[in-house]
Each structure stands twice: as C-alpha cells, then as structure tokens.
Amino acid sequence: MVFITNAKKLELGANQRDSGKQKKKKKFDWVTKEVKKKCKTKKKKKEKESENEDEDEDTETSIRLKTPRGTRDYHPWEQRLRNEMMDTIKQNFEKNGGQYIETPVMELKSIMMNKYGEEEKLIYELQRQDGTAAEELCLRYDLTVPLARYVAMNRKRIKSPFKAARIGCVLCLYVYIDIHVR
Question: SUPFAM superfamilies annotated for this entry (predicted)?
C-alpha cells in the first residue's frame, strides 16, 4: 500500500510538473503568437512589394532612381567638409601667387580633338535639338585642354610666370586600354 501511494505521489508530481510547464507555456504563448503575426505580416509585405515591383517593371513609366555609374551624391555635411577642404587648398595656392580661372564646360570639338585625337571615344558630343548646323561642341573630359586654350588666347595679357589652377567637373566616358610595356 505504501508503494501505491508513492507511485500515486510520483504520478501527481509528474502531473504537477507538466502543469507547471503548461503554465509557463501559456505565459509565453502570447509572445509566440505576436511573433507569428509579425512574421506573417512581413511575408505579406514582401509579397506585396514583389507584386508591386513586377507591376512597376511592366509599366513603361517606372523610373529606377540611382546615380549614373561613377558618380555619387554628396550629403550636406559631406559637401560642407569638401568645401572647407577646397577653401584651404585655394587659400594656400593663392598665398603662393596662384590664380584661378573659370573655363566653360563645353569646348569646340576641333580644339579637344587637336590635343587628343586618339581619345575620340572619351568625348560626349553635343547636338542641337532642331538639327540645324552649328559649331561642333563637346563636353570637356579634361581640364588641361581648356586651360591651354585659355593661355593661348590670352598670352599677351598674361604675366610670366603664370600660376593657374582650375578645379571643376569633367565629363567623359572612361575607356580602359591595355598597355603592353616592353
């Protein structure tokens, strides 16, 4: 008889332990339910986004927002740092007798080709929208040619030694050429 009661006690103890686990399980059930809900909503959002992307690809008016290859946007804080750095460089250059000049972004194609004829692939040519004949223009891909043109045009007015600098954007297609050195 004692043995039976001990067995019953053991059974009761096991049942109580199980019910304790169930209580803990019930305690955290709401957490698992919330996690499952969020997972389901995330899946639904992803499915909707992928459906929207598929629809966007189908329409002709969709635009993919990105910068052209080789370019980037500068955030205001980055631009402020760049400006400070450029101001420091300019001030030091001017302290040593340097001068800054400004040249146009576009140049005559004949001038650009005269300097670097073999580099024709680097040039972006400009054409008029109405198709009328005009001067052949191209965007500068280098700051040296416009600077040389400026010096050649103004050599009588320029005092020697002429320390000039130009800081600006250049627009070109980069073509990688294999160079074989002997």
Answer: Class II aaRS and biotin synthetases
Q: At 129, which helix (H) or strand (E)? A: none
| CA R_g for the chain | 37
Tell me the pTM.
0.53
Give the H or E element holding residue 126.
strand 125-126
Sequence-distant (6+) residues with CB within 8 A of 128 are 134
pLDDT of 81 reads 92
Backbone angles phi, psi at 71, to 5 degrees: -120, 170
Q: How far is CA 48 from CA 19, 34, 35, 56, in A?
A: 42, 21, 20, 12
The Cα 142–Cα 139 span in angstroms is 9
pLDDT digits (tens, 9 = 90+) for 131-157: 776 788 888 888 888 888 899 999 899
- Length of the chain (residues): 182
Task: Please answer whether residues 138 and 125 qualify as being in contact, where contact means their C-beta atoms are separated by less than 8 angstroms.
Answer: yes
Quick: pLDDT tens for 25-68. 555 565 566 666 766 766 676 666 666 555 545 455 678 888 87
